[in-house]
Amino acid sequence: MLKLGLRSVLAHRLRFVLCTVAVLLGIAFVSGAMIFTDTLSAALKKNFAGGTADITVTAVSQVDPGTSGALPATLTIDLANQIAAVPGVAGTDPQLLVPGIQIIGKDGRPIDNHGLSAYGAGWPHHPQTAPFRLLDGEAPWGQAKLALDQTTARREGFELGQQIKVVTPARSVSATLTAITTSALSGSAAGAPLVSFDPATAQLLLLGRPGWTSIGVAVQPGQDHAIVKEEITSIAGPDVTVRTAAEVSADGENALDDTFGGFSTVLLMFAGLALFVGAFLIVNTFAMVVAQRSRELAMLRAIGASRSQVTGTVLAEATVIGVIGSTLGLLIGTGVAGGIQLFYQSLDLAIPSTALQVSAATIVTSYLIGIGVTVAAAYPAARRAGKLPPVAAMRDDLVVPERSLLVRLLIGGFMLLMAVTLSAIGLGTQGLPGAVLLAFAAAITLLGIVMTSPLISRYAVRGLMRPFGRQAPVVLGRRNAERNPRRTSATASALMISLALVSGLVVLAASAKASVDKGIADAIGTAEFVVSDQGGAFSSQVGDRIAEVPGISAVHRIRQLPGTVASTPVSVSGVSPGTLSGPIVTRLDAGSLDNLEKGEAVIPRNLANQLKLSVGKRFQLVTSTGKFPLTVGGVIASNREVNAVILSLDQFGAVGGAGTDSTLYLDVADGTDPVQVRSAVLAKVSDYPSVLVRDQQAYAAGERGPINAILGVVGALLALAVLIALLGIVNTLALGVVERTREIGLLRAIGMDGPQLRRMLQVEAIAMALLGALLGVIVGVLFAAAIQQVMAEDGLSVLDVPVLQLVIAIVVAAVVGVLAAFWPSRRASRLDVLQAIAAE
Amino acid sequence: MTAELVEQAVAIRTVGLGKSYGHGETRIDALADVSVEFGRGRFTAIMGPSGSGKSTLLHCLAGLDKPTTGQVMLGELDLTKLDERSLTHLRRDRIGFVFQAFNLVPTLTALENITLPLDLANRKPDKAWLDTVLTTIGLKDRLGHKPSELSGGQQQRVACARALVSRPHVVFADEPTGNLDSRASADVLGFLHRSVREFGQTVVMVTHDPTAAAYADRVLFLADGRLRDELLDPTAESVLDLMKQLDGTD
């Protein structure tokens, strides 16, 4: 049966080319993502192996501080001394490693690390336990000297003896470069830019207080590491992890993985979309091929092949296509991964490189997915082929029995009903759970439409094509689109799903942008300027200096750190007195803002609802440094600027907040020129080049930035989806031309000219494209609007439907239809009339 | 030989028509030096054994196939000099077709199929003429049906109506009764016959059936790509007799 399948694929090469392309695209993304990830981790293992102390003791953060203003959890020097006394320990090395450092380049701007955080470190006490090594120069000493990693120094052109400016969360420092080091060899900072100071200076500059983030332990030669580890664990107490070098390496915690893992996620999204949309194309191709070959297949049955054998030949064809598509996809995926690697190497980050890692797992996964998708998509057609009665070989008029649409319509109807119910529940559920329910309902709706679309297409095509007139080619094209509703709707469905996804995201993104604008306009009151920093938190010196500028009447500070309440992740904000009654407009719902100064918390309404808290209730806040009981002192209206557990600055410090600000709101005194004041402020903070001083509009524009980045990815997704949908239309038309060879010959014989033939096929293509695009946009917009409704309290306060963009999307779909008809119509108009009429 | 047969104005004629496939030793002449005229308002049948070139002659006459040598003159127009696009428009406006099978577009109704050549040419049908044609084929109650809902004979009658509706110079019929039983054949042939008698239509038909040929005014016999003989006012018996004779001389 495999041989028959192989022969058939070879004989009908053309029909299967597009199937293969669809599989290929999906597998290229799958394998590209896997190869890139494998290559990255292999490179990390290779370059950073052995850079770890025998045993590492780390403070456990309840909450990952990330690069926010939260202080990392620390260990005391006492613990280091206790560990040093443990039998078998040769020496201890208290180490300090803090993210969120900015290195200022020669142009006065912070250097661009392409998403990697730069780290600050204390100089290691012993070479044996050092997380990085000295390459050139002398270890830095005092506040006027620092060390930098080799890659960063080379890239930025820094040489020993030069002055380098560094902005830490605590302050801005200028110091002489006295040493070149490697990057950190393991842990989360591996491969990232690294600035180091002598240990005492590091504590002062990076932490602002004594403490160490980890303790490296050297074990005496001949001692069992595991036993020493047990000893240390027993004296270290809770909130501390003790790991051997092997365990540290196995944990593989690394900032590079996080940063570039995002890349793999995007690739996998593309893969999913490509394969899903491609599956429709494969379903259609096999349905058509089986229909065309029904006599041949019935002949196989007549000469003694069993049902399963006939089904088998068709599945064998699918397997062959899956194998070819996966093989080519793997090759292209390897190229994609290589391209991404080259791109990152060209950025000259401290990213290690190694040969591309094409692992067995990648190959097996690619083939499994490629073959699996193809065979699954071909299965319905294969099953129908098996059901062909042998007598079909003898008869002219017998076609493949198509299962009645009834079952399909019933299932589809049931799904739509389920989607409606889910939507109703979702609309009644506020916040993220509601949005998730609605997204789920949207997916079921799409599947429901796919199931019922043969019925929909029967009625929709006529209406859609009405504006195109009643000329003969138009009528013929429309009837062709109507004659096989399954095929038309399957082709349209692929486009529908893509466009539903894209239009939904477009509406959500536009709404998010509009909501940002409105949220900022609503929330910011008297403040003239908003001060923030690209890197997140910034030194409190910035605010101190701005306060000295003449014309600035008040500086209001907001600080932030992540935490959890009852296992729910929340933001924690510290605000300076008066911030909530003026610069930020908030309506007090209950309690009093004065309670802030008593050490109580104020929370916005949405958070109060989510956490089921009200004034007077007590709750426990967990931050990176510990657990703190708090009382709700007030509830304010939900607002964009502070969506957090709000504390006074003092209380914020007490729960582990750093003395760094995340946002400043500046009031300008009456009668002063804001433009002049802004220049004066900028001059004052020139030490902090990444600090931004913006008015409301500029601030809003900046806040919209990330949404634009998301729209960029959406655009790329759209392009890919449209490409595959285009292939689907080309495929359906091309197969239709083969199937209707005689009919086309007849039309040519009785006087249909080339342009009319082209027009006929274009109309069919446009019908499919418009059907898919319209259904997709309707579903996408409706569900996006519904999601906006339930998320109104959570940052999506405004619904914005970008009508123009959506109309353009639909027009593009129609144009794509015209383009898709190009190749099949060229083939059709080149058919020899006499041969076409005589064709079987 | 042919000059004396001209009784009326000529609708279409060939001059030294030849069609060959292949080159050198493998060269096959499907038609060799065929010069023949078809009178206006006459019903001509072309007969001959398989491979005699009768279908090739019909296809060349109809502008569906390009001859290797010679000319096809439709009035003063030389079809062999026309490009593909002009031929297409010529077929649409001035020539009618009836094929052996698969004559109708399955997605269109009978009436839509009949008016298709006019629709393609963006012309409005002449109501009175359309009515006459529809009355003659006698399928007025089935005009809204799709071809799959019509019998084979009904389908061929619809195809004949389509061939006539644009008042073409010539209607070419390629074995129009090849797939029909005798009753349906009689319907179709009777219809073609009437179109010649009553409407002065010119019809050229390829057939291998002596009964069908008997409906014609004149029968041409082809063998090995050459014109062998002809018969005026044929009957089924006279056609059969001549066929036997020709077989005997081979």
Description:
The complex is a heterodimer of chains A (840) and B (250). Chain A has 840 residues and is an alpha+beta fold. Chain A has four domains: 1-51 and 251-403, no CATH class; 61-238, no CATH class; 404-522 and 703-840, no CATH class; 536-689, Cathepsin D, subunit A, domain 1 (Beta Barrel). Chain A has 25 helices and 23 strands. In chain A, β14 and β15 (568-575) form a beta hairpin. In chain A, α1 (2-11) packs across α2 (13-48) and α12 (405-428) packs parallel to α22 (754-790). The radius of gyration of chain A is 33 Å and the shape is globular. The mean pLDDT of chain A is 81. A six-stranded mixed sheet of chain B has the order 6-7-8-3-9-10, sandwiched between helices. Chain B has a four-stranded antiparallel sheet with strand order 2-1-4-5, covered by helices on one side. Chain B has helices spanning 54-61, 84-94, 110-120, 127-137, 152-165, 182-199, 210-213, 236-249, and strands at 10-21, 28-39, 43-47, 69-74, 77-78, 95-98, 170-174, 203-206, 218-223, 226-232. Chain B has a single domain, classed as Rossmann fold, CATH 3.40.50. Chain B has 250 residues and is α/β, with parallel strands linked by helices. The radius of gyration of chain B is 18 Å and the shape is globular. Classes of the chains: A alpha+beta (840), B alpha/beta (250). Chain A binds chain B through residues 471-473, 475-476, 479-480, 482-483, 742-743, 746-754, 756, 833-834, 837, and chain B through 59, 64-65, 84-85, 88-89, 91-93, 97, 99, 102-108, 112, 116-117, 119-122, 162.
Q: Looking at the structure, what is the overall shape of chain B?
A: globular
Strand order of the largest sheet of chain B: 6-7-8-3-9-10
Percent strand of chain B equals 25-35%
CATH topology of chain B: Rossmann fold
Distance between the termini of chain B: 21 Å
User: Using only CA atoms, what is the Rg of chain A?
Assistant: 33 Å
CATH superfamily of chain B: P-loop containing nucleotide triphosphate hydrolases
Return the average pLDDT of chain A rounded to an integer.
81
- Shape assignment of chain A: globular
Helix count of chain B equals 8
- Which stretches of chain A are low in confidence, meaning pLDDT under 50 for 5 or more residues running? none
Q: How many discrete structural domains of chain A?
A: 4
Protein name (chain B): Putative ABC transport system ATP-binding protein
GO molecular function (chain B): ATP binding; ATP hydrolysis activity; transmembrane transporter activity
Keywords (chain B): ATP-binding, Nucleotide-binding, Transport
Pfam families (chain B): ABC_tran
